[in-house]
Amino acid sequence: MTDTPASRLAALGITLPVAAAPAANYVPTVAVDGLLHISGQIPFAEDGSLVRGRLGDGMDVAGGQAAAKRCAIGVMAQIQAALGDLGRVRRIVKLGVFVASHPDFTDQPEVANGASDLMVAVFGEAGRHARSAVGVAVLPRGVAVEIDAIVAFQD
C-alpha cells in the first residue's frame, strides 16, 4: 500500500465522516490563492452525538484530547470534501483550537495536542503547523473543543 494520508488514516482505523454542513450563515471552506480556510469544526463522536463538556469541570485532559481529535477528523473531512483528495495537502499551516475551560484550567495546549498529533500522524512533516490554543467560557452547542484551520494545497 502506498504511503498517503488516506493510507495513514486507514492504518489508524479512522474513516472520515461526511463533512458537516454549516449550522448558520457561513460556508464550511473558502479556497483563496492556494490556501483552504476551514470554518470551525466541533467534535462529533463516531455515533454522531456531540462531545460536550468543559475542561477542568467534569472533563479531564484525556477527554479534551479525544474531543480535539474528533475536531481534527472533521477538519480532514472538510479538506476531503473541498479538494477531493487529502494527497493535495501541501501543509497544514495553522490550527486555531478553542477549549471550553473552567477559569482555573490552564492545560489548553495539551488538549490541542489531540488534534496536532493526529495531523502529524496523517500528513507527516506537512502536518506540522502553527497553532493557537485558547481557553473560552463556552462554545456552540456546549461542545468541549472547536477547531478551525488553514491548509496549503496543490492545484
Automatic annotation (TrEMBL):
Pfam families the UniProt entry points to: YjgF_endoribonc
Span of domain Endoribonuclease L-PSP/chorismate mutase-like: 7-140
InterPro entries: Endoribo_LPSP/chorism_mut-like, RutC-like_sf
UniProt xrefs under CDD domains: YjgF_YER057c_UK114_like_1
The organism's place on the tree of life at top rank: Bacteria
UniProt-recorded name of the protein: RidA family protein
Record organism: Sandarakinorhabdus fusca
